[in-house]
């Protein structure tokens, strides 16, 4: 199941040139650009890990693309997103966030039903990937597929 | 999910341009050249003069000529580079060449010969011709690149490189990066990161190394990777006395000061005297001397305030007295007297 989150989620995955253009837009707006990654893409998981510090004081998207390339080298089998923070007074929050990398295979989510009081049913979604411990999710599959692609 | 193209740089799929070893690209015939037949090319009319004006390089050169006195070999070299870039720019328009030219440079010369100023102009020229996207200059020294403990250097260097992306990274006194006397020095790590980025991201930033001639020579000798990655070595000559005088007048003119005739003669004498003394830093020494002269001028005017009224013009004039009070003349006299004493004592 292809997971979609954040901006441009209705579009096909952005190409590198498109990512670069979006990042340049963020920089031109004066936002600090972050690269984040996770192996738990549950929509309610807002705590993605950061790749390095937020990038202040940069002028060109090439810097972010360089970091993104590095991040992909290490975590190419995980979800990576780019977000940008607007620090101006009144905003002080994330203005844009979009996925820039995803595992080759996404197992998707399971719908779980919990019977509660009376005949009530509570629903929740559970990513299949998180059945495995942290660090082992997506790893094996990605290694196999990258071998195959060579 | 399978219908979306996997265009991401997954570990298995790397950009072929980055992987190619250096030096091979020049032997490759651009595929566009083969496609475009010669008759097509001869039909294309190009107005070089118009292109020059459009790129706005002429303005930069005018400023360069006005603001930089002397430095003829440097200016010629920059013009040559600019011509090359312009032609490259036009060739790119016609689809003749795909590779970005290597633009990294090394500026060598004595202190105060205008390396930083020229680097700033270079960034502008590169920007106007579209070889860097933003055209800003990030000026760094060893301290900004090299860390203090293990693991500190890489993030620090990368931080600076990221700031310089889209512009020019100017590394002043670059030879300090390499310290052979200390084998545990982290400078080598910074050099490696620098070389890697210089090679892989030629289109994203231009690195300019600057430093004194002999030490840069030593630096390049011990880091051959640097020499081969730098396309343009530009040497900055020292200024002669007349040029230094002109520079002094230019500095003053920018600050709305001027020299009186006597002041001009005094400055000329000052330059001759200052040159013989140690730590002479060309234009920088002149600027410092003039800063001190301004201090003395102010002092002179304030002390004389009780006796007479001054005009507005007096506020702008640097007189001989302001310069002649310099320590340099005293030292010159002292040196001469001690020299003569020595010779006398030798005779005795």
Largest interface: A-B, 33 and 26 residues
* CATH H-tier superfamily of the largest domain in chain B: P-loop containing nucleotide triphosphate hydrolases
Helix content of chain B: 55-70%
- The number of distinct helices of chain B, counting runs of at least 4 residues, comes to 17
What's the domain count of chain A? Answer: 2
Q: Please tell me the overall pLDDT of chain A.
A: 88
Structural class of chain A: alpha+beta
Tell me what portion of residues of chain A adopts beta-strand conformation: 25-35%
Major β-sheet profile of chain B = 5 strands, parallel
Quaternary status: heterodimer
Q: What's the total helix number of chain A?
A: 3
* Reported CATH architecture of the largest domain in chain B: 3-Layer(aba) Sandwich
Estimated radius of gyration of chain B = 26 Å
Verbal overview:
The complex is a heterodimer of chains A (150) and B (348). Chain A has 150 residues and is α+β, with helices and mostly antiparallel strands. Chain A folds into 2 domains: 16-101, 2-Layer Sandwich (Ribulose 1,5 Bisphosphate Carboxylase/Oxygenase); 109-149, no CATH class. Chain A has helices at 16-28, 61-75, 139-149; strands spanning 32-38, 49-50, 79-86, 93-101, 109-115, 121-127. In chain A, the strands form 2 sheets. In chain A, strands 2-1-3-4 form a 4-stranded antiparallel sheet. A two-stranded antiparallel ribbon of chain A has the order 5-6. In chain A, strand 5 and strand 6 (121-127) form a beta hairpin. In chain A, helix 1 (16-28) crosses helix 2 (61-75). The two termini of chain A are 24 Å apart. In chain A, 31% of the residues are buried. Mean pLDDT of chain A is 88; it is low at 140-150. Chain B has 348 residues and is of the alpha/beta class. Chain B has 2 domains: 47-236, 3-Layer(aba) Sandwich (Rossmann fold); 241-342, Helicase, Ruva Protein, domain 3, CATH 1.10.8. Chain B is built from 17 helices and 7 strands. In chain B, strand 3 (168-171), helix 10 and strand 4 (206-211) form a beta-alpha-beta unit. Classes of the chains: A alpha+beta (150), B alpha/beta (348). At the A-B interface, helix 2 and helix 3 of A face helix 9 of B.
């Amino acid at each position: 199941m292809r997971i979609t989150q954040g901006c441009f989620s209705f579009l096909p995955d952005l190409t590198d040139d498109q990512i670069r253009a979006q990042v340049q837009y963020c920089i031109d707006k004066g936002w600090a650009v972050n690269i984040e990654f996770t192996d738990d893409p549950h929509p309610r998981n807002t705590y993605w890990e950061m790749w390095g510090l937020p990038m202040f004081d940069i002028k060109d998207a090439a810097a972010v693309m360089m970091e993104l390339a590095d991040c992909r080298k290490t975590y190419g089998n995980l979800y990576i997103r780019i977000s940008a923070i607007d620090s101006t007074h009144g905003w002080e929050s994330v203005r844009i966030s979009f996925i820039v990398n995803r595992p080759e295979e996404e197992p998707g989510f399971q719908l779980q039903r919990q019977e509660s009081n009376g005949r009530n049913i509570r629903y929740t979604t559970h990513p299949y990937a998180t059945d495995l411990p942290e660090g082992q999710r997506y790893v094996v599959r990605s290694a196999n597929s990258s071998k195959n692609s060579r | 999910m399978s219908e979306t193209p996997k265009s991401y740089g997954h570990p298995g799929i790397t950009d072929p341009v980055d992987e190619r070893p250096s030096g091979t690209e020049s032997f490759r015939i651009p595929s566009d050249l083969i496609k475009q037949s010669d008759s097509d090319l001869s039909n294309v009319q190009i107005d070089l003069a118009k292109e020059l004006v459009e790129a706005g390089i002429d303005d930069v050169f005018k400023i360069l000529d006005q603001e930089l006195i002397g430095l003829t070999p440097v200016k010629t070299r920059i013009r040559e580079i600019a011509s090359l870039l312009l032609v490259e720019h036009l060739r790119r328009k016609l689809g003749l060449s795909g590779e970005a030219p290597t633009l990294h440079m090394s500026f060598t010369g004595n202190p105060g010969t205008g390396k930083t100023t020229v680097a700033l102009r270079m960034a502008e020229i590169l920007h106007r011709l579209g070889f860097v996207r933003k055209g800003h200059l990030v000026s760094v020294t060893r301290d900004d690149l090299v860390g203090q403990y293990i693991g500190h250097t890489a993030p620090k260097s990368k931080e600076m490189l990221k700031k310089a992306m889209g512009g020019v990274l100017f590394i002043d006194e670059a030879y300090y990066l390499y310290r052979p006397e200390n084998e545990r020095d982290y400078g080598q790590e910074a050099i490696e990161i620098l070389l890697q980025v210089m090679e892989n991201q030629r289109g994203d930033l231009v690195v300019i190394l600057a430093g004194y001639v002999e030490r840069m020579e030593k630096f390049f000798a011990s880091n051959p990777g640097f020499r081969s990655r730098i396309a343009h070595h530009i040497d900055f000559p020292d200024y002669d006395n007349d040029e230094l005088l002109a520079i002094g007048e230019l500095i003053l003119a920018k600050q709305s000061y001027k020299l009186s005739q006597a002041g001009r003669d005094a400055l000329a004498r000052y330059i001759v005297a200052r040159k013989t003394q140690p730590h002479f830093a060309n234009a920088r020494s002149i600027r410092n001397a003039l800063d001190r002269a301004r201090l003395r001028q102010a002092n002179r005017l304030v002390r004389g305030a009780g006796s007479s009224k001054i005009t507005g013009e007096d506020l702008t004039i640097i007189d001989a007295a302001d310069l002649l009070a310099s320590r340099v003349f005293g030292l010159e006299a002292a040196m001469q007297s001690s020299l003569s004493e020595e010779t006398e004592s030798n005779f005795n």
